[in-house]
Amino acid sequence: MRGNTRSCWKPSALWVDERVSCSSKIRKKQKERSEASVQVSEFFVNAEGTGEKVNLSDLLKTIEKTSVASNKTKKQLKNLQDSKQTLELPLNKQQTEKIQRSIAYEKTTKEVSTWENIIVQNQKAEQMVFPLNQESSAPKLVEQVVASWKVQTPLEQEIFGLLHKNSQPSNDPVLTPVEEASLKAMSLEEAKIRRAELQKARALQSYFEAKARREKQIKSKKYHKVKKKGKLKKFVKQFDEMVKTNPEEALDELKKMELARMKERMSLKHQNSGKWAKSKAIMAKYDDSARKAMQEQLQMNKDLTQKVVVPSDDEHESNEEASETVPDFANDPEPVLDPVNPWMRGQLTREEPEVSRVTTEEAQTAEEVNEEEELLGEFERKRKLRQADEEDLMTTEEESKKEEPASEVVEDDVVEVSDTEEEAEEEEEDVSEFNTLFRLMRSEKTVEGPKHTPGQEVEEELLNEGEIQVRNMEDLELLGEDVEPQPTAEASLPQTAAEEDTSEPLNKKKREIDLQEVLTKEAKAVRVPFLPTVIEDEEQGEQISLIKEAFAGDDVISDFIKDKKKQEADGMPKVVDLTLPGWGEWGGVGLQPSQRKRKRFTTKMAPPPPRQDRKLPDVIISEKESASVASHQVSHIPFPFQNTAQFESSIRTPIGSTWNTQSVVKKMTKPKVLTTLGAIIEPMAKDMKNNKSTTPAGKEPAIVLEGNKTAKGDSEGSEKSRRRTKSKKKKN
Amino acid sequence: MKVKVLCRNPDDYVRETTRDIQRVPRNFDPTLHPFEVPREYTRALNATKLDRLFAKPFVASLDGHRDGISCITKHAKSLSTIISGACDGEVKLWNLPKRECFRTIQAHEGFVRAVCSRFCGTSFFTVGDDKTIKQWNMEAPGYGVREEPINTILGKVVFTGIDHHQTESTFATCGQTVDIWDEQRSSPIRSFSWGVDSFSCVRYNPVETDLLASCASDRSIVLYDTRESAPLRKVIMQLRSNTLCWNPMEAYYFTCANEDYNLYTYDIRHLDVPVTVHMDHVSAVLDVDYSPTGKEFVSASFDKSIRIFPKNKGHSREVYHTKRMQHVICVRWSADNKYVLSGSDEMNIRLWKANASEKLGLLSSREKAAASYNKKLIEKYQHHPQVRRIARHRHLPRDMLNQKRQLQEMKAARRRKEQNVRKHSKPGSVPLLTEKEKHVAAVVE
Known about the structure:
The complex is a heterodimer.
Chain A: H1 2-8, H2 12-23, H3 56-65, H4 71-82, H5 93-113, H6 116-124, E1 128-130, H7 142-147, H8 154-165, H9 177-185, H10 188-217, H11 221-245, H12 247-266, H13 275-283, H14 288-305, H15 319-331, H16 342-345, H17 355-358, H18 361-369, H19 371-395, H20 397-403, H21 406-427, H22 433-451, H23 459-466, H24 473-482, H25 497-509, H26 515-520, H27 538-550, H28 556-571, E2 575-577, H29 595-601, E3 602-604, H30 627-630, H31 644-652, H32 662-668, E4 673-675, H33 688-694, H34 706-731
Parallel strand pairs in A: 1-4
Antiparallel strand pairs in A: 2-3
Helix pairs in contact in A: 3-4, 11-12, 13-14, 19-20, 24-27
Chain B: H1 10-13, H2 36-53, E1 58-63, E2 69-74, E3 81-86, E4 90-95, E5 100-106, E6 112-117, E7 123-128, E8 132-137, E9 151-154, E10 161-164, E11 170-174, E12 178-182, E13 190-192, E14 199-204, E15 211-216, E16 220-225, E17 233-237, E18 241-246, E19 253-258, E20 262-267, E21 276-279, E22 285-290, E23 296-301, E24 306-310, E25 318-320, E26 328-333, E27 339-344, E28 348-353, H3 365-380, H4 385-392, H5 398-423, H6 435-438, E29 440-444
Antiparallel strand pairs in B: 1-28, 2-3, 3-4, 4-5, 6-7, 7-8, 8-9, 10-11, 11-12, 12-13, 14-15, 15-16, 16-17, 17-29, 18-19, 19-20, 20-21, 22-23, 23-24, 24-25, 26-27, 27-28
Helix pairs in contact in B: 2-3, 2-4
Keywords (chain A): Nucleus, Phosphoprotein
Subcellular location (chain A): Nucleus, Nucleolus
Main location (chain A): nucleus
């Protein structure tokens, strides 16, 4: 608008010109800006000679005048002149602006999107501490602190003046160029990487140290022996390699070996001359292991004092040969003789003639190589032994009894029972008092068995009570009256083999007592092998008697079973009979609806999900919802959780200090946002983007070692299993 | 041979001074501490009750203005200072800890439309109905010296909003156009206009400091980049937005306070649908401000209440109101994340706690631990009905409650009608729109 008004306005001097120009029919428009303005309109920017069209021919004229212009450009211009095509119109203003805007928008969004990482990171962060860019607490340089300080009070001014007078170096550069360079030398990232490396090295070192310490603490001699052996083997291998690759070092090693040999020869070690060896020598006649130990000592001595061949210079070329000669040489002096045999070597006196007879070297080495196998074999042997014992007991008792103490057999048996018991415990899911009760009863059984056996006077009673196991509360009570700690004499034997037969498998089978079976059927007579050695706690006995007293007179267990059966029956779906008598047929007194009809209108409901206590004979778990509790319970699974198990597990772990250690509580109750009192929280600065993208957020360790990772997994697994067993224990 | 000996070292159980806490030997064996879930549940319930019991958010009221408060701003560098402008052209500077006004300036004739503090905290700018931008020194003039602005810029039109750049000496105003000014010049260095003739609010992005957003009277929100020649994009909503605020920690999110009782959080990369619609107010929302941590924001409404929303939740976690508080015009969240300031029609500035039940002042470490434990417990058991019932209960004034119910009814009716229409028309002809999609009319490139 303004442009238009201005274009109408013309200075009077121009009028004259224009009148002249009008007469000459060449009208020149001349525009002028009269007012300083920020906005410059496109309408009144005018060049000289507007309105005149510039033709290509005009341009060509000038080109022709100047000889400098090349023929090529001339040709191009001529071609242009020939072509009749017109240039396209530029886009209108709206469209160009739209394009500009969309380009700008794209650019901005791209730039803004670079924040995404940080934003997501911060959203996921367990804890955020504000203000974000807190200054490092590292001490500042004194000079830097002083530099920002200004003199204010007159006293300070005076002092400052004095200092200046003495030309103190107050204006000296704070840091020398070298110092500055050293500060700049390492960028933050480099420093971080370096730090991480160092950290890793340190961590590795500490792991190895810890491992070494752990291994050192292992007391098993066998373990150390095996380990040493392995080390030696490894060394030999390495040495062979070394001989081939690096003979000089190999030589060094050999020298070392030689030194060790010399030391060994000098010392009295492994000579079977110490106190220990002497004591062993006495025992060696009777004890196999002592003999073995002595032999080992000697073997060690022999090994250590064996001469190692130092490869001479001429042998140096043929390393392989040299390495081969070593064992040959070692064998040379006694090629035929048994190296273990001390007689042959003349190092042991004749006092122990049996020693050498027992084992050969091969046997020994084989034994040491696969020790695990041996252990396994040992277990196998033991098991077989036990089985054989049992069989013996069952079949040919008279013979076996004399040889083996009955107590041992029984003990074995008991161990087995307890094993199965443990298994059963692991299988069980819930805790119940009845379980413990039954266990008590059972243990009492085992205790009681032998007590009643001895003594001819009470033979009759023994037969009725001692050997007959009765399994209900009344009988238990009766039994309990007799329970008194009696010192048991030698184990007397079970009366008949037939009875024994019945008792054994039963005893093994009873992992947990099946209530239904036991209580609904008549009490069975069960023979138990007598246990003179196994004695349970006396406290338990007391407890049992207490329980018996408490439950005297009422048959709690059968009541309980009835109750449970009733509850189960209630829970079962009922058959719904919808037949209407008299509907569609005759009805009346004495008339029953037809079978067909009844069949048609009775519907069976789907069975309910299995009861939780179906495998627990001594527990009733009520699955009814109670109104008083329901008001406190969550009715739906809340949003982030996918299933009930997840939600329940989130609730189950307590976070309070009653259940957790201080540090754990602190970790678990960490607030999400932490602010400092009285600190201004500035908005996120732009340089944060660069800082954060390089370093991972969160408080995980900067490095995760591979070995460590697996170890961690293992430890976690073991931890888990531990916890599992613990929880099981708790349940039981 | 290893000999095991019982030993008692007094260091283990005797405290050094009588001021120390008694050492309590603990056994963490779970069997000794049974019923952990029920016990913690009870604790959570108690914590929730106590939390509500101690919820006393109102801290102080600052009175002294002689007309409704039109704008508040925080001092950039000092937590204890705020600046407020009133509808009679008066600007007051307040000392919060003392709860008193320490300086009063008659800055403009007519309304003080907006106040903003310079990033360094040495001066502040005001714009008013008298078409002027004035820069004032933060420090009061000496005794007997007249209160005069450092700088005054006479504009041609009324300025309705002002905001200062985070780090540079430029500021942006809005009126008929959005102008970028240099502090040293009396004319704008840039001027953006895009077919709109009046803006109500302009805000710099605090993170990406070259970005700007403004609310216009044609129901649109316009984005600008000062480095570009043209505005970036415009989103037109169903009703007008009054103000907007950028998230100070997340560069691409902003929230706008709308006339349709809702607030909308937008991601500037996807303007066609808001990220979250925040509903709860029962009247037009007039102002919004983010907490400095960027996790929550506070909104002021014409319905005489202020509400605090988590940034990603559709409903508010807190509502503050008092009998005497009238329409709340402006609201700010203090820079230490502890307080909320609201200025309202009835000439008072109110100071609220951002967390209603938080204990103020220094806390001992045990107090802190207890507080964080309680907070965690409430969070853990938040889904349990009893805890939720107590934690969520808020008292509302009768008319606000009535209005809320009325709104709910209206919404239900509308939904019902829409369902009916959909039922009785050709399948697909009445599209199913989510709540988020309903409020955006168009996005203009």
